[in-house]
Fold each of these.
Amino acid sequence: MVDLQTYSDGGSRGNPGPAAYGFVVLEKNGSVLFEQGKTIGISTNNIAEYSGVIAAFTWIDNNIPHETINTLEVFLDSELVARQLSGQYKVKNETLRNLFHTVKQKEQSIGVSVIYTSIPREKNKQADRLVNIALDNETMF
């Protein structure tokens, strides 16, 4: 069984403006399994944040056998998105609500309960770095 963690971030230069997400999937022991940064066009910070979680879950869904996942913790520096996904805040914006439902569908597909935690930006440096590299290069890596 594997205990997974993801660190996810999203950013927009202009809000809305050129936007990207970044995420890192690790085993709880710190071993990096995968990381990615990708631009998503013109968008908002919140949409970019949700896009990072969706991309991380998509990678996990496609690459980690579900029966081997014991726990999944998601760390974000967006308090809004973390609290919406953990059920503490309602999702009023229709676009964010659609993204929220996509995340919840991915959760069901993976089949493990997820813990969402809001962390300070300085503890999310890897994902933030991936966002900025993607925005600086406007490419996927």
Amino acid sequence: MKKGNAADIQVKGLKPIEIALKAERVKGIRIGLYPNHVHIDVIPPNPSRFWLVKRYGDNPIYSGDERELQNFLRKENVM
């Protein structure tokens, strides 16, 4: 197993959605949006580039083929 392929991020003063939208600019990463943090990793997108966990304990909702985080979040009524 390789080390250093992922990070869970919180930034004081920023909501997770704000962090995720900024992180989207970085190519080659996956973004998982959680209630109080953002998970970022460099694993190839499988099953998708983005996922959302609305409440801890819920299964993730995957973006499928959606290439824009904002569009995915709109479809999930998060934005």
